[in-house]
Design goal:
The chain has helices spanning 8-20, 25-46, 48-51, 53-61, 75-83, 85-92, 105-113, 126-132, 178-189, 204-212, 225-232, 255-260, 262-281, 283-294, 298-306, 317-332, and strands at residues 65-70, 96-101, 119-123, 137-143, 150-155, 170-173, 198-201, 218-222, 235-240, 249-254. The chain is of the alpha/beta class and 352 residues long. It folds into three domains: 2-51, no CATH class; 64-145 and 248-351, Periplasmic binding protein-like II (D-Maltodextrin-Binding Protein, domain 2, 3-Layer(aba) Sandwich); 148-240, Periplasmic binding protein-like II (D-Maltodextrin-Binding Protein, domain 2), CATH 3.40.190.10. The strands form three sheets. A five-stranded mixed sheet has the order 7-6-8-5-9, sandwiched between helices. It has a three-stranded antiparallel sheet with strand order 3-10-4. Strands 1-2 form a two-stranded parallel ribbon. Helix 9 links the parallel strand 6 (170-173) and strand 7. 42% of the residues are buried. It comes from Nostoc edaphicum CCNP1411.
Amino acid sequence: MFSKYLPHRLMKIVTSFLQNYGISRIGTFALFFAVGLGLTLVISACSPNNTSNSAATQTATQGVVVRIGYQKAATILNALKNRGSLAQTLTAAGASVTWTEFPAGPPMLEAMNVGSIDFGYTGESPPIFAQVAGTPLLYVAYDPWSPKAEAIIVPKDSPIKSVAELKGKKVAFAKGSNTNYLVVKAIEAAGLNYSDIQPAHLTPADARAAFEGGNVDAWAIWDPYLAAVEHDLDVRILTDATNLAPNRGYYLARQEFVNSHPDLLKTLLDEISKIDKWAADSPEEVAKFLEPELGIKAAALEIAEKRRQYGVLPLTDEVITQQQKIADTFHKIKLVPKQIQVKEIVWNGNKS
């Protein structure tokens, strides 16, 4: 009987009162049950477990360190790091953030593979190589970037006038990068095979030195390094990625981090979206901010910012299909040893 949970004296008084008015003992117990149930619901509703979801969330994130990998050339994450807004938001949730710089996407995802970072941003090719290698990652969002933001260039006085003339030539690019795919598709469109060129796998800094020194014939590179070399040197674009590669960027997270801290991931994406909107509206400010960070003149950076697109978007079927085409292409020419299914590692949490 629920009545035993009420104070004995109160129960006695109420019972006497109700019986004086002809209410039976059974009716008394029924009333006590109703009153007791109501009190239970009120107490439950007022309990810390139900009124303090934010406190419970903070407990779940207390002491969690969100480890982010970034490239200085990645505008949004670089800005997010330096503006400090993410650190403040995570501190309020009882968490914190650390940042590790990488020269390109592939080594960043290698770090994710060994559990050194939880989150990062790369071009379209690195996550394909990482998935083939068994890296436990998930695509969590993408940005549209721009086909105009990457290109294959040669010195202005080079005798090479078309992509077809790269046959037998040495072409510099970062292996597994977005420009790796651009080179593959550009060579294919020119009627050549990938084996017809001499790939020189170099990071952006090393590739520029080789390009300036005449040690490579062409260079496939992305913004803002592309804008910088256009600004500083006399170069000629053989082709950009228009009609060849979508040149999207992807936000990627370690599977264990996503599974353990989905709320922190959503917080992170929300903060990225805020910075993204600021950058889209403020190309001049972004250029001035990045100039000392990258050692690239603001005028060149402004060119890069104005020709790119912005957005922190959930992956669509069309985007996944295009990413699958890239994976299939790499497998076809034996750049990767096995086929993969991109859709198997796409997070759907940001569609809600």
